């Protein structure tokens, strides 16, 4: 019985392994596209640009947005939510809710080492989110506007998200006050 000896098989196996490794390493080097490139400018009530959301959305093949077009709140429409999913995972969650004055909001932020956002009235930021409670004087009534953002910079240290979230909350608070016709009390 004759066959290929071990010495003859070694170069064939080595060549096959080299080709397989080259193919696999080529796949590993391919980066997914920036998820923000698949987001329309009016996403999340029109409050943020795709470039501003890019650090939180990272890279991904599939982007799904669940959001109303605007942020106009009133007694009949007291709250809105925007959720952007990247490859099935939440990349950004933004909420806005109109509250009666003095109802009080419970800030469960003691365990997350929240810090104030100097440019945002009653604003707080932590590694995975930001929140603000804005007193508002509307055309016909007074109310509080409760804003929340949730997300984190993909692949970075936990604290790296704070500056991004603080800047987004500043823009979000300004935009929400304009959209809800909220004048600071």
Short description:
With 185 residues, this protein is α+β, with helices and mostly antiparallel strands. Helix content is 28%, strand content 27%. Strands 1, 2, 3, 4, 5, 6, 7 and 8 form an 8-stranded antiparallel beta sheet that branches.
Features:
about 180 residues; alpha+beta; about 30% helix; globular; eight-stranded antiparallel beta sheet
Structure, described:
- With 185 residues, this protein is α+β, with helices and mostly antiparallel strands.
- 28% of the residues lie in helices and 27% in strands.
- The chain has helices spanning 6-29, 50-57, 161-179, and strands at 63-66, 79-86, 89-100, 115-116, 123-126, 129-137, 142-150, 183-184.
- Strands 1, 2, 3, 4, 5, 6, 7 and 8 form an eight-stranded antiparallel β-sheet that branches.
Uncertain residue segments: 9-27
* CA-based shape: globular
Largest sheet: 8 strands, antiparallel
Rounded radius of gyration (Å): 24 Å
